[in-house]
Amino acid sequence: GAFYIDGNDFAETTDLCASTILLKRPNDKKTYLHTRYWIPESKLIDSPDGVDYRQWERGGWLTIVPGNSVDSSMVADWHFALLEEYDLKPFKSGFDNRFAKDFQNRYLDLFGEKITVNIPQDFKVLNNPMRTLEADMRDKLVNYQNNPVCYWCFCNTGIVLDKLGRIMPTKMDSTKRIDGTASKIIAYATLEWYRSEFMALVG
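The structure corresponding to this sequence follows.
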């Protein structure tokens, strides 16, 4: 029955796609994250990253989509399934504007206007959320369900600095994926923008 904020990273339609919902409890410093992943089946053939996506699918963390691409509207449908099964309701849905048109259109159909929020992928916007996420994880204030795909994405994530010392995520290795980390930073950025309104809903 709770409201949540979510962050979505669609990367390329031919790559890994990640959606993270962020939940808070009254009088609880912890942040609770639930992440789902999608990847096209064609990317599993001769994959250079050396991970077993089918094992992650069997564990319920990831969906392997037939064909060569992930339709971002599937992510919106997953959010609607959360509403139907758990009465979880989106308050604000942050997304990376690239490749998000189908997601936006589907989300509008399912949940109405004024929920989706474009989170620009630049140093100015992502610096504070990334630093906050890092600090919260260091202080063990993040419960991400020990999701193995999330852990893998965290391990693949490095930082790049601009001349002002602001940070953004970057891949440690070009063959590895950081989409799960990106979705969490987008969720944290959305929380930063709408914290007071969201926390009022939390109670």
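The chain has a mean pLDDT of 94.
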